[in-house]
């Protein structure tokens, strides 16, 4: 195949597989075998030998389509379920895996306090649910900075991570993921994770730390995760079941 043919085929491609569509990013390089990987953010990356034809590439992807779809869906399941909240008195909200009831009262000086089994929220307008939400999210964020930071430090003490420097990290509001790890090794954690139990928080942080060593969900990634946290599957299940 000539270079211009490879150039035309390089980039975004799609394979129809039954009712599924597999979008993938194709590139060519001097290599012996075709490699397929599913990135942590769900993208499918295909690296083909320089002389491969598009037909042979599609054929090999079709053979592994079942595996690719499973990987992609497993990834999609790795995210929070978010039932809509109304931010009114009596509603339950979670913090570190426990349920607390909202008690919203009127007052000029806005504040959030955790008292017994209650989130006590003071706000000038009780009916302004957006304002209550903002107050509670700000409280969650302050707690998350401390709690996630402490967990990161603890998880990094594992012998498997001893060569890693303390990673750059930040908290985000994410719709479909508990956490992610960028190509530059920055760990992003979902603000909502602060609502999960400490064991589940540890699982997500450990999962992302493993990505600093294996960027993809490849066999090496799962081997490492199994070693660092042998009961990660149970924690993952708990996290998915708990919702928020
Ligand atoms: Zn991952």
Layout of strands and helices, then pairs:
Elements: H1 3-9, E1 11-17, E2 20-29, E3 35-38, E4 44-49, H2 54-63, H3 65-77, E5 92-95, E6 98-106, E7 111-115, E8 118-123, H4 129-156, E9 169-172, E10 179-181, E11 187-190, H5 198-211, H6 219-228, H7 232-242
Parallel strand pairs: 2-4, 6-8, 9-11
Antiparallel strand pairs: 1-2, 3-4, 5-6, 7-8, 10-11
Helix pairs in contact: 4-5, 5-6, 5-7
The protein binds zinc ion.
Short key terms for the protein model shown above:
single chain; 244 residues; alpha/beta; four-stranded mixed beta sheet; 7 helices; 11 strands; elongated; binds zinc ion
Write up this protein.
There is one protein chain. The protein has 244 residues and is α/β, with parallel strands linked by helices. It is built from 7 helices and 11 strands. The chain has helices spanning 3-9, 54-63, 65-77, 129-156, 198-211, 219-228, 232-242; strands at 11-17, 20-29, 35-38, 44-49, 92-95, 98-106, 111-115, 118-123, 169-172, 179-181, 187-190. A 4-stranded mixed sheet has the order 1-2-4-3. β3 (35-38) and β4 form a beta hairpin. Bound molecules: zinc ion (ZN).
Helix and strand content put the structural class at alpha/beta
Please state the oligomeric state of the protein chains shown. Answer: single chain
- Helix tally equals 7
Global geometry: elongated
Strand arrangement across the biggest beta sheet:
1-2-4-3
**Overall pLDDT confidence:** 89
Radius of gyration: 22 Å
Q: How much helicity do the residues have?
A: 25-40%
Task: Note the run of SSEs as H and E.
Answer: HEEEEHHEEEEHEEEHHH
Bound molecules: zinc ion
The biggest beta sheet is recorded as: 4 strands, mixed
State which percent range the strand residues make up: 25-35%
Write down how many β-strands occur, each being a DSSP E stretch of 2 or more residues: 11
The rounded distance between the terminal residues' Cα atoms is 53 Å
Low-pLDDT runs: none
